[in-house]
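User: Just a sanity check before I run the rest of the batch. Below are the structure tokens for the first item. I only need the designed sequence back.
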């Protein structure tokens, strides 16, 4: 693994460690809701700005749709499989299946993905990876929002049991009027109308978007101190195996034998799939107050394990 990637991993763990230390010393307050306040800031302010700006600026015509399909097809399939399995098993809160589904499917494509791909494959690989990043949150968070909001309506959260039509309308409303989906839809509309995005407005969005990574990493550290790993080690291991092993294996099969990808495009999509669990899994868990300890432990454990699994996937890709 290159020195650039190792340094990025060390930086990530250092910032998470600072968050843990802040929680232990009560530097940011002595209440148990400190992590939730920071998570809400990321979910309601910083992430919407990042999603809107990304979606409004993306060149839809230039995207490599075949390569993207080879990545997102198996990733969304795994997401749905985990979600349906957890729903069928039962025993979780209404949002629990969706939180476990995002933990298995949502990767750290920015903090780790960008430096890894840049270091290994240069500009050619980075261009493909950026295309994945541009649709990553848009695709996975939109699908998961629909699933979790439908489950909350079916569980009668906030009122009496609605009928089928009311259920569909409430789910649609909650899905659209949402801090993830609404900025994506607004950004797409801005993009399709070819409206200009510059000046002070773009600078405000860019500044807010830059806060996503550090705030999320500190929040992970705070949550790690708050929840610990006692009682969630088993689920965290299962989530990490799903993210680090199962997902890249599915993408490899779909991309190579299904879409016929080889060389750099194949390596980029498989590496993107092999990345550890991303911080949005914790934001999602805290948004819906479900499986927060699992999501936190899964992020930390999968990031540690990636030091081993990442190079192993590179060895596998060397055979193609």
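Assistant: Here's the designed sequence for the first item:
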């Amino acid at each position: 693994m290159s020195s650039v990637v190792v340094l990025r991993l060390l930086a990530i763990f250092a910032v998470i460690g600072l968050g843990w230390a802040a929680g232990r010393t009560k530097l940011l307050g002595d209440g148990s809701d400190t992590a939730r306040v920071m998570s809400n800031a990321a979910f309601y302010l910083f992430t919407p700005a990042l999603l809107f700006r990304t979606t409004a600026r993306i060149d839809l015509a230039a995207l490599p749709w075949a390569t993207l399909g080879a990545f997102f097809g198996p990733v969304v399939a795994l997401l749905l499989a985990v979600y349906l399995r957890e729903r069928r098993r039962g025993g979780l809160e209404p949002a629990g299946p969706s939180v476990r589904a995002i933990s298995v499917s949502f990767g750290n494509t920015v903090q780790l993905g960008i430096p890894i791909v840049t270091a290994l494959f240069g500009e050619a690989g980075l261009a493909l990876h950026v295309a994945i990043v541009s649709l990553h949150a848009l695709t996975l968070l939109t699908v998961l929002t629909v699933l979790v909001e439908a489950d909350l309506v079916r569980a009668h959260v906030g009122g009496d049991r609605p009928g089928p039509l009311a259920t569909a309308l409430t789910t649609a409303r909650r899905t659209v009027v949402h801090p993830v989906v609404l900025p994506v839809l607004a950004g797409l509309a801005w993009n399709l109308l070819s409206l200009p995005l510059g000046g002070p407005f773009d600078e405000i969005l860019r500044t807010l978007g830059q806060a996503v990574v550090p705030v999320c990493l500190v929040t992970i550290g705070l949550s790690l101190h708050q929840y610990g790993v006692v009682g969630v080690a088993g689920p965290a291991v299962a989530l990490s195996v799903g993210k680090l092993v199962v997902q890249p294996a599915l993408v490899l099969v779909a991309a190579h034998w299904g879409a016929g990808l080889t060389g750099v495009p194949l390596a980029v999509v498989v590496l993107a799939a092999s990345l550890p669990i991303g911080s949005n899994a914790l934001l999602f868990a805290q948004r819906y107050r479900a499986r927060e300890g699992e999501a936190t432990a899964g992020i930390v454990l999968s990031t540690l394990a990636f030091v081993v699994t990442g190079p192993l996937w590179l060895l596998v890709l060397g055979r193609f």
